[in-house]
Amino acid sequence: MTHFVYMLRCADGSLYTGDAKDWRDRLELHMNGRAAKYTRSRRPVRLVRLETHASKSAALKAEAAIKRLPKQEKEHYVLAGRSR
Question: Given strand 15-20, what is the order of strands in its sheet?
C-alpha cells in the first residue's frame, strides 16, 4: 500500500510536514481546518512537496527525518523537490 509524506506552506510562511494514505483527502482536511491543530490557525495552506513511499513505516521514517531538519534545510528540501 502506498503512503505519502507531504509538506505544506502555511499562510504565515511556516512549513508543516505530515503523512497520509490519501494525501488529497488529508490536504482538504487541512484546508478546512479539520486536520492538525498546527495548521488550523495558519490557513490557508498550500502543498509544496509530495513524496511517495512503499509502506507506512517508510513514510513515518521519512516524515520524522524531515521534521528533525532545521528550517533552512527544510526550505532547501522543498526547492529540491521542485527541480525534479
Answer: 15-20, 3-9, 46-53
Kindly report, residue by residue over 21-74, the tens digit of the pLDDT: 999 999 999 999 999 999 999 999 999 999 999 999 999 999 999 999 999 999
User: What is d(CA 40, CA 46) in angstroms, rounded to the nearest whole number?
Assistant: 13
| DSSP result, 25-65 | HHHHHHHTT-S-HHHHTS-S-EEEEEEEESSHHHHHHHHHH
| pLDDT for 84 beyond 60 | no
Alpha-carbon distance of 7 to 42, in angstroms, equals 14
One-letter amino acid at 51 equals E
Measured between its terminal Cα atoms, the distance across the chain in Å is: 24
The domain locations on the chain are 3-82
Q: The whole model's pTM is what?
A: 0.93
CATH code assigned to 3-82: 3.40.1440.10
